[in-house]
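Dear H.,

Thanks for agreeing to be a second pair of eyes. The structure we're designing against is below in token form, covering all 401 positions.
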């Protein structure tokens, strides 16, 4: 067992979720797995799957036992362990302080208004293409200092970064890895060119900050810089796109919730938290066992992959009362929608702010938000991302045009 995994398990779909209906709503499957096989070995994906809250939290909070490093160059915070991880994180934290994020609120509101206002008179919009994708892309592009006009490219790249294999065959996995490799090369070329420009002419942006930064007297390598930019691009928009879309999907599925939140706008922030629990954008997080560990009566061998199903943990009734219900003012809400431990999502405050602004704006300007009748939803092709490719909505405008 003590060998590098042949395939990265988080890119391979689990067989229990083969049907589209189950991918669109996997929570009953999670409940059965949580109950019947809370820690189980999947021969096909060559990994352990963990489904209960307590066990998932144990894996994520113990980097000494469960490593984030994979058999690839450790160029981003996602794939490094301490102490390197802390050094990289502390560096980027400068741009993601609560004060720095709150200062973005007026600009985020401006972007939301620019995207939403033209649609109000039409009474419908394609939520993913018209709002949930462009808003976080524009925000992260401006933060990084890359042209927002390239946002269509960002969308293509981001989709490829989180994409999973079409099925669990070796051919599908190989095809996926080749596509990801091409994608990484394109991103590296793109960001290297931008960094070259910033070396000549630094700006007030994240790429300039990273170029100037030092860890223990050493500047970041080109590879580390590119890794950072790729991580921020993917984490900065793909997760938020799905958070916004999933939140609006819940509103459409539960119309009475729209009116309650309209009457109690102070609950929008906690409704965003509950979305992260109920329909989390990321449902599974991968680790590698650094030593042989016993977990819930099972022996996990050193070198084996471990997949922590936060999408299942977030519905664990041992932790959450009425776990299968959306409770918009749930307190406390110890969900792991942004992960847990040292790899807790760095961009969480930004994603929360963007989702809050969008939901608040939509609820103030639209009522009776619903999925366009006759729409067939398609899940995103990913084993660890929960979301839909398109979500066209119709609504009544609360603003007179």
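And this is the sequence the design step returned. I haven't edited it by hand at all.
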């Amino acid at each position: 067992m003590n060998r590098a995994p042949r395939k990265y398990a988080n890119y391979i779909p689990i067989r229990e979720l083969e049907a589209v209906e189950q991918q669109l709503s996997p929570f009953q499957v999670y409940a059965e797995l949580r109950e019947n096989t809370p820690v189980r070995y999947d021969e096909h994906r060559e990994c352990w799957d963990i489904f209960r809250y307590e066990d998932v939290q144990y894996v994520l909070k113990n980097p000494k036992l469960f490593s984030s490093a994979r058999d690839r160059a450790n160029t981003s915070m996602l794939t490094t362990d301490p102490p390197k991880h802390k050094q990289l994180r502390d560096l980027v934290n400068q741009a993601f302080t609560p004060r720095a994020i709150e200062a973005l609120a007026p600009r985020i509101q401006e972007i939301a208004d620019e995207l939403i206002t033209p649609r109000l008179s039409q009474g419908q919009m394609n939520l993913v293409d018209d709002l949930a994708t462009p808003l976080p892309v524009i925000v992260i592009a401006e933060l990084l200092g890359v042209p927002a006009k390239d946002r269509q490219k960002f969308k293509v790249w981001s989709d490829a970064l989180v994409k999973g294999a079409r099925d669990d065959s070796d051919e599908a996995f190989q095809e996926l890895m080749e596509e990801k490799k091409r994608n990484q090369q394109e991103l590296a070329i793109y960001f290297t060119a931008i960094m070259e420009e910033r070396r000549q002419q630094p700006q007030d942006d994240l790429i300039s900050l990273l170029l100037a930064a030092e860890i223990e007297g050493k500047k970041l390598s080109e590879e580390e810089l590119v890794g950072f930019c790729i991580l921020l691009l993917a984490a900065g928009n793909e997760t938020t796109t799905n958070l916004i879309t999933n939140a609006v999907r819940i509103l459409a599925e539960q119309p009475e919730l729209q009116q309650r939140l309209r009457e109690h706008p102070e609950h929008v922030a906690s409704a965003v938290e509950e979305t992260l629990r109920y329909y989390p954008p990321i449902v599974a997080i991968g680790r590698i066992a650094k030593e042989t560990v016993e977990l819930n009566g099972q022996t996990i061998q050193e070198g084996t992959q471990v997949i922590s199903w936060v999408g299942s943990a977030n519905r664990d009734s041992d932790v959450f009362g009425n776990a299968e219900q959306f409770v918009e003012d749930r307190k406390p809400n110890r969900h792991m929608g942004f992960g847990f431990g040292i790899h807790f999502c760095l961009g969480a405050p930004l994603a929360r702010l963007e989702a809050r602004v969008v939901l608040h704006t939509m609820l103030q300007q639209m009522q009776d938000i619903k999925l366009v009748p006759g729409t067939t939803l398609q899940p995103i092709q990913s084993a660890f991302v929960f979301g839909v490719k398109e979500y066209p909505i119709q609504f009544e405008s609360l603003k007179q045009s």
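Two observations from my side: The CA atoms of residues 319 and 334 lie 8 Å apart. The first strand starts at residue 39 and ends at 42.

Warmly,
E.
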